[in-house]
Specification:
Blueprint: H1 2-6, H2 10-17, H3 25-48, H4 58-71, H5 79-97, H6 100-107, H7 113-116, H8 123-133, H9 145-165, H10 169-172, H11 176-182, H12 188-197, H13 205-218, H14 220-223, H15 227-238
Subcellular location: Nucleus
Domain HAT C-terminal dimerisation: 174-239
Main location: nucleus
C-alpha cells in the first residue's frame, strides 16, 4: 500500500485530497526508505505461503534477506529500523541455522545446494544424511560395522556426484520434484530422503487454508439454513455493492 501511495506525485495527491501539503519531502523519503527495507520481507512472506515452497527454501531465503539488508546503503531515517530487523532475524531464526533438518533440506534443494556447501567446515553435514536416512523404515535393518563404513563411503560418493550434477545449466531450472524424479535411480537413498524431507511445507499457511475453506463449507449456517439466515444472505448479496 505504501509503495502504491508513493507512485502519486505531490500534484496528484493534492487533487485527490483537495488540499496542499499532503506529505512533506522528508516524509516521502522516510516512506521510500521504509519500502526498501520491508519489500524483501513482503516478497519472501508471500512466496513461502504458497504450496510450492518446502522447508528447503527457508535458510537460503533468510540468508538472502540478511544479505540484502546488509548491502543497503546507510539510510537517513530508517537506519535504526534496518539494524533492528537484522538483529531480530538473527535472534529469531538462529536456531534454524543450527538445525540439521533445515540444513539438509536446503542442501537437497537443487537450486540452493551449491551455495549451502562452500567450505570444508560443512564436511560434517555431508555425513548427516547417512544418520537421517536410517530413520526410513527400509534402512532400519541392522548391519555390520564394515557394511556401515562401505555405505557411508558410497553415500558420500553419491553426494559428491549430486553436487557436481546440480551445477549443470540443464538442471538448475528444474524444480525439486522434476529433479529428483529424473535422478531417483542414480541416487536412490538421497532421492528417498529428499522426498521424505522436501514434502514438508515452508509454513502452515497452505494447511490452514484447507481448514478455513472446509470450515466455511461445513459450518452450521451452511448445513442448516433457516429462513432468517436465508433472508440475511439475500440482503447481503443485493447490497454487496
Amino acid at each position: 500500500m505504501v509503495k502504491s501511495f508513493l507512485q502519486f506525485s505531490d500534484e496528484e495527491l493534492e487533487k485527490i485530497f483537495e488540499r496542499k501539503f499532503i506529505i512533506s519531502a522528508s516524509q516521502r523519503t522516510t516512506l521510500e526508505e521504509l519500502v526498501k527495507v520491508l519489500e524483501g520481507f513482503d516478497l519472501i512472506t508471500t512466496m513461502i505461503q504458497t504450496d510450492n515452497f518446502s522447508i528447503g527454501h527457508i535458510l537460503p531465503l533468510l540468508k538472502g534477506l540478511k544479505i540484502e539488508l546488509t548491502n543497503l546503503p546507510t539510510l537517513k531515517f530508517c537506519e535504526k529500523i534496518k539494524k533492528n530487523l537484522l538483529a531480530s532475524l538473527e535472534k529469531r531464526f538462529s536456531y534454524l541455522e543450527s538445525s540439521e533438518i533445515y540444513n539438509l533440506a536446503a542442501i537437497l534443494t537443487p537450486k540452493y545446494a551449491s551455495s549451502n556447501i562452500i567450505t570444508d567446515s560443512d564436511s560434517d553435514i555431508l555425513e548427516r544424511p547417512t544418520k537421517k536416512i536410517k530413520l526410513l523404515s527400509y534402512l532400519n535393518t541392522p548391519v555390520s560395522v564394515l557394511s556401515q563404513t562401505c555405505q557411508t563411503k558410497n553415500l558420500r560418493l553419491k553426494f559428491t556426484e549430486y553436487l557436481c550434477e546440480i551445477d549443470k545449466p540443464c538442471n538448475f531450472q528444474l524444480d525439486n520434484s522434476a529433479f529428483w524424479m529424473k535422478y531417483k535411480d542414480n541416487w536412490c537413498e538421497l532421492a528417498a530422503f529428499a522426498k521424505y524431507i522436501l514434502n514438508v511445507p515452508a509454513t502452515s499457511a497452505s494447511v490452514e487454508r484447507i481448514f478455513s475453506v472446509g470450515g466455511a463449507i461445513l459450518r452450521p449456517s451452511r448445513r442448516c439454513i433457516t429462513d432468517k439466515v436465508f433472508e440475511q444472505l439475500i440482503f447481503l448479496k443485493w447490497n454487496l455493492n
